[in-house]
Design goal:
With 124 residues, the protein is mainly beta. It has one helix and ten strands. The strands form two sheets. Strands 1, 2, 3, 6, 7, 8, 9 and 10 form an eight-stranded antiparallel beta sheet that branches. Strands 4-5 form a two-stranded antiparallel ribbon.
């Protein structure tokens, strides 16, 4: 039996955040994207492009009173990658160095924020 799971928590640059139990993060650990191109003799070739791994649609719980909003905004403005770990409820651990990409919109009513991280990501 195979079971999927949400993330339990994520640590961004040493600070831990809980994740929304209903969040459905999209994890892309592929190292290359492959594209085919045809040749005039009917054969084809593969063009490999190295790519950056990502975790998208990750919803974290934030508390403005604890400075979480400022912390996330500071991370987004950093030019260099920072360390992260993420633990799924089934025990898998993702780790690496990432940056926050895309918009970081705070949902006032839910006290959550959707983030996307990209960088070097691996399963430990």
């Amino acid at each position: 039996m195979k079971a999927g799971s949400a993330f339990e928590s994520i640590t961004l640059n040493g600070r831990n955040f809980s994740c929304d139990a209903e969040c459905e993060p999209e994890v892309d650990l592929s190292v290359f994207s492959n594209e085919t191109a045809s040749n005039s003799d009917g054969t084809f070739r593969v063009k490999k492009t190295r790519k950056v791994q990502s975790i998208e649609s990750l919803t974290i719980s934030v508390d403005p009173a604890l400075g979480d909003l400022d912390f996330i905004m500071d991370l987004q403005t950093k030019l260099e990658p920072f360390p992260f770990t993420a633990t799924s409820v089934d025990g898998r651990v993702y780790s690496g160095e990432v940056v926050i990409t895309d918009d970081t919109k705070y949902k006032e009513k839910d006290s959550t924020m959707d983030i996307t991280i990209q960088g070097r990501i691996e399963i430990l």
